[in-house]
């Protein structure tokens, strides 16, 4: 089924996309999608080829992805914060046939264009025009409004998203097709298998915001776009459009929770029914604050770009199972393996693995060796996270394998320490990691971003931790930072904080 055509026939004047004061109805969305799809096919875009979308959240962004899927091509989002060299690398590595560029990134595209000789066409998505590019407005105006060239069937199309590159060059995690039938039980578990007014608060280039916006359209809902996140602005949009669902990374929820109480009370957020959080560990304090403000609407999942959504924590379990990211998603099988590859009993931490199912990636594009490194035999896959599972089946993520601190032979999981320090009233954010120690191998270091206007000392934070943690988990030192490095999705770039301590060392453990 072509979902866009079906919703345009059933509810033609219902909004499909809202961006500022601009509203695109389902009928207008279908017309523009069809015209752009035919135009892209006329430029030679074929099923299975890659089309890069390099832009901020916008109506044009969503139209471009929908049109690419309509002809069977795969839309590949580009991270906003990459350097020109990194952009050039992805253009080359992805074998992109067409690149669509928002106004803010036209200058970068112009600078790297000569280094991407295999790109056949460039398309500008905003007001900027260049002699070397087509303009999306011209393509839509000249396109054929008739039905799409390729039926989408029961699929929402393929996808390829480049990972963050924390262990080397970014890798394209590619899915050739995503079956709607496999998605249905997972989305039903979130109460998202029905029309919602959905706030796209995070950047659509990131896997979860882009996916949840697309899923909203599968069920005929309305997507309200935020070009750039602002905490009070998000509340204003929720109140104005009666938003009923959203996905936010923990840092975005924290920014809402940190708003003064008198600001939060200005907005009616009673329409909100589903808030999904994922992408990084969410401190319990943030969860508690969000539940207190919005009510019992917070859902959390654990997953990854490669392995999709693997667990679900429902609102009624958030406070009952503190620190958990939920139980296995419907249709998902999980296990925790020890160093010998054997399953571990309940309560023991090890490497979390997921049995291959319809929602996982097919491959890292053109990187068979990297793909093989995720495989653990007998259909199990891993992205390198440490976890334990309790007797009720609830999963607790300890950390990334590479983030785990080993001090004196003892495994220490930074997420637990970070959750404690987040509760100090002077702490805005915190990142815990291991630094070199000639005696113990590593010692625990806490990098802290204080709240604006607050004063706190290292001694005070260490004492705070000592009252709540075992001795071996206590940070031995604290550094203070005005800001933390983050990517555009709000993920903390812990490696940037950690790297100076390990520079020049042959061994990183």
Topology:
Layout: H1 3-10, E1 15-19, E2 22-25, H2 26-42, E3 50-54, H3 59-70, E4 74-77, H4 84-93, E5 98-101, H5 106-112, E6 121-124, E7 134-135, H6 136-142, E8 159-162, E9 172-175, H7 180-189, E10 197-200, H8 207-218, E11 222-225, H9 231-241, E12 245-248, H10 250-257, H11 261-264, E13 274-277, H12 284-294, E14 298-300, E15 303-304, E16 308-309, E17 311-312, H13 315-318, E18 327-328, E19 334-337, E20 350-355, E21 363-364, H14 368-372, E22 380-381, E23 385-389, E24 395-400, E25 405-407, E26 410-412, H15 414-421, E27 427-437, E28 441-450, H16 458-466, E29 477-480, H17 494-502
Parallel strand pairs: 1-11, 3-4, 3-5, 5-6, 6-7, 10-11, 10-12, 12-13, 13-14, 28-29
Antiparallel strand pairs: 1-2, 8-9, 9-21, 15-16, 17-18, 19-20, 20-22, 20-23, 23-24, 25-26, 27-28
Helix pairs in contact: 1-2, 2-3, 2-6, 4-5, 9-10, 10-12
CATH architecture heading of the largest domain: 3-Layer(aba) Sandwich
Q: What integer value in Å does the Rg equal?
A: 23 Å
Principal-axes shape call: globular
Spatial ordering of strands, largest sheet: 2-1-11-10-12-13-14
Considering DSSP H and I runs of 4 or more, what fraction of the residues is helical? 25-40%
Mean pLDDT across the residues is: 91
Number of spatially distinct domains: 4
DSSP strand content: 15-25%
The main β sheet shows up as: 7 strands, mixed
What does this structure look like?
The strands form eight sheets. This protein has a seven-stranded mixed β-sheet with strand order 2-1-11-10-12-13-14, sandwiched between helices. A five-stranded parallel β-sheet has the order 4-3-5-6-7. It has four domains: 26-163 and 170-178, Rossmann fold (3-Layer(aba) Sandwich), CATH 3.40.50; 179-321, Rossmann fold; 332-401, Luciferase, Domain 3 (Luciferase, domain 3, Roll), CATH 2.30.38.10; 405-502, GMP Synthetase, Chain A, domain 3 (2-Layer Sandwich), CATH 3.30.300.30. 47% of the residues are buried. With 509 residues, the chain is of the alpha/beta class. The mean pLDDT is 91. The longest helix has 17 residues, at 26-42. The chain contains 17 helices and 29 strands. Helix 2 (26-42) crosses helix 3 (59-70) and helix 10 packs across helix 12.
């Amino acid at each position: 089924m072509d979902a866009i055509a079906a919703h345009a026939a059933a509810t033609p004047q219902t909004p499909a996309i809202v961006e500022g004061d601009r509203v695109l109805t389902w009928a207008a969305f279908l017309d523009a999608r069809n015209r752009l799809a035919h135009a892209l096919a006329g430029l030679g875009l074929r099923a299975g080829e890659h089309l890069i979308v390099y832009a901020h959240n916008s109506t044009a962004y969503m139209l471009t992805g929908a049109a690419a899927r309509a002809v069977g091509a795969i839309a590949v989002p580009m991270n906003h914060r990459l350097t020109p060299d990194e952009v050039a690398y992805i253009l080359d590595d992805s074998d992109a046939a067409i690149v669509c560029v928002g106004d803010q990134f036209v200058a970068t595209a112009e600078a790297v264009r000569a280094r991407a000789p295999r790109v056949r066409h460039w398309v500008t998505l905003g007001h900027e025009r260049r002699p070397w590019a087509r303009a999306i407005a011209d393509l839509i105006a000249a396109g054929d409004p008739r039905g799409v060239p390729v039926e989408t069937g029961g699929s929402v199309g393929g996808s390829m998203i480049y990972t963050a590159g924390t262990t080397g060059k970014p890798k394209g995690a590619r899915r050739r097709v995503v079956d709607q039938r496999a998605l249905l039980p997972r989305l039903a578990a979130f109460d998202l298998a029905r029309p919602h007014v959905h706030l796209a608060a995070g950047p659509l280039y990131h896997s979860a915001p882009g996916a949840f916006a697309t899923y909203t359209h599968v069920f005929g809902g309305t997507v309200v776009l935020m070009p750039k996140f602002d905490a009070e602005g998000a509340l204003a949009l929720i109140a104005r459009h009666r938003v009923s669902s959203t996905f936010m990374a923990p840092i975005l929820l924290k920014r809402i929770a940190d708003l003064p109480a008198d600001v939060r009370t200005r907005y009616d957020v009673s329409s909100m029914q589903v808030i999904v959080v994922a992408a990084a560990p969410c401190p319990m304090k943030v969860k508690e604050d969000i539940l207190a403000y919005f009510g019992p609407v917070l859902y959390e999942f654990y997953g990854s770009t490669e392995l999709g959504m693997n667990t679900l924590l429902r609102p009624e379990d958030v406070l009952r199972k503190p620190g958990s990211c939920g139980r296995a998603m419907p249709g998902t099988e999980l296990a925790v393996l020890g160093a010998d590859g054997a399953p571990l009993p309940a309560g023991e931490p090890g490497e979390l693995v997921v049995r291959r199912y319809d929602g996982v990636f097919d491959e890292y594009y053109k990187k068979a060796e990297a793909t093989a490194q995720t495989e653990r035999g007998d259909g199990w896959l891993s992205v390198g996270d440490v976890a334990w599972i309790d007797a009720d089946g609830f999963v607790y993520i300890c950390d990334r394998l590479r983030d785990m601190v080993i001090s004196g032979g003892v495994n220490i999981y930074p997420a637990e320490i970070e959750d404690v320090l987040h509760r100090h009233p002077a702490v805005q954010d915190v990142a815990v990691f291991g630094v070199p120690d000639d005696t113990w191998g590593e010692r625990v270091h806490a990098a802290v971003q204080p709240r604006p206007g607050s004063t706190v000392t290292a001694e005070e934070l260490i004492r705070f931790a000592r009252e709540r943690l075992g001795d071996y988990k206590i940070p031995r030192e604290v550094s203070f930072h005005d800001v933390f490095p983050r990517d555009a999705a709000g993920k903390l770039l812990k490696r940037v904080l950690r790297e100076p301590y390990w520079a020049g060392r042959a061994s990183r453990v």
